[in-house]
Design brief:
- There is one protein chain.
- The protein has 347 residues and is mainly α.
- The protein has three domains: 79 residues, Leucine-rich Repeat Variant; 87 residues, Alpha Horseshoe (Leucine-rich Repeat Variant), CATH 1.25.10.10; 120 residues, Leucine-rich Repeat Variant.
- It is built from 18 helices and no strands.
- The N and C termini lie far apart (134 Å).
Length: 347
């Protein structure tokens, strides 16, 4: 009898011990897990901030932080999206913030779209907002499609509105087609406008998500308008230089004003040189004043020579006097302008 009682007591105590261990296990095991998580968090923040680390590894660290969704990770991503010296990292961090779906992240992206100056970062913000699932995103994307100054950001907004699947997007997408210059043949007539290709393609694809089709026959494309956009907004100087040259072959008066802007303001000398050549090809007298200014003030020697040659082609007393003065002031060398000077009769 006593033996049975002992066995019962031992079993009971064993049961209590097992219950105690099961209850305490999370406490013992959670400490090392938490420590490991903190180490992973710190490691990824360190990689994200290190400018000497390979770009792909920094972007991977941003994605890892996005998966953690902790307040510290969100703060690190916001800081990277705001201040990192690498624009690709800023854009990637912005996109990752949206993926987290966290309110603080979405608040930052919505506010950032209004004041961020770099189009590549705004594009990342648009993609991030699309992935966030936040109900405020729709209105933000519509506003971006309607008012952003950059063609590529508007394209992202159009594409994103299609991905959201909200049928309220149909009207702003059709309006974007009109604004960007698509000719839409409808029962009520036609609207004839010019086109901006990238935004149009994105809007057309987005409308297909809602079974709204715009046929090829209903699109009209104005290449002059497209090239003017490229000259103003393309980030690659070689592309801008090619576009400046192509506008000179267009023989369109619409190209004069943007070419003058490029001649005086583009940071790359090859773009300015091609703009000068194109202005001489167009033969518009409005270019004389800006070409004189470029000949006198361009910081690059070949920029000044190109402007002088363009003035020689346009001709006129004003151009002749300006070239003579530039030679006297040693802004340009007569050796580089032999043909131009002979044409103008300048000794």
């Amino acid at each position: 009898m006593i033996k049975k009682i002992r066995i019962t007591v031992i079993c009971y105590l064993g049961f209590l011990l097992i219950c105690f261990l099961l209850e305490m296990a999370p406490l013992y095991f959670s400490v090392p897990v938490a420590v490991a998580a903190d180490k992973t968090l710190e490691h990824n923040i360190k990689i994200l901030r290190d400018k000497n680390v390979d770009l792909h590894k920094r972007l991977e660290a941003a994605q890892n932080l996005g998966k953690m969704k902790s307040p510290r990770a969100i703060r690190a991503l916001i800081k990277a999206a705001q201040k990192d010296s690498n624009n690709a990292v800023r854009s990637g961090a912005a996109e990752t913030l949206g993926r987290t779906g966290q309110t603080a992240a979405v608040d930052f992206l919505i506010a950032g779209l209004k004041k961020e100056k770099l189009w590549i970062v705004r594009g990342g913000m648009v993609r991030g907002l699309t992935l966030s699932g936040d109900p405020r995103v729709f209105a933000t994307l519509v506003r971006t499609l309607e008012s952003d100054t950059n063609i590529f950001v508007r394209k992202e907004a159009a594409r994103s509105l299609g991905k959201l699947g909200d049928r309220r997007a149909i009207e702003p997408l059709i309006m974007a087609l009109r604004d960007e210059g698509v000719v839409i043949h409808a029962k009520h007539g036609e609207d004839n406008m010019t086109v901006t290709r990238d935004v149009v393609q994105a809007a057309v694809v987005a409308l297909r998500e809602f079974d709204v089709t715009v046929s090829k026959d209903s699109l009209a494309f104005d290449w002059i308008a497209w090239d003017i956009h490229r000259l103003k907004e393309h980030q690659d100087e070689d592309e801008r230089a090619i576009t400046a040259w192509r506008l000179g072959m267009s023989k369109s008066s619409k190209a004069v004003a943007p070419l003058i802007t490029a001649l005086l303001n583009d940071p790359h000398v090859d773009v300015r040189r091609n703009a000068a050549k194109s202005l001489s090809n167009l033969g518009d007298r409005r270019a004389v004043g800006p070409l004189i200014k470029a000949m006198e003030s361009d910081k690059k020697y070949w920029g000044r020579i190109s402007a002088a040659r363009a003035l020689g082609i346009l001709g006129g007393k004003r151009a002749v006097r300006a070239i003579q003065k530039a030679i006297q002031d040693k802004k340009i060398s007569p050796k580089a302008l032999k043909d131009t000077l002979e044409k103008l009769g300048i000794q």
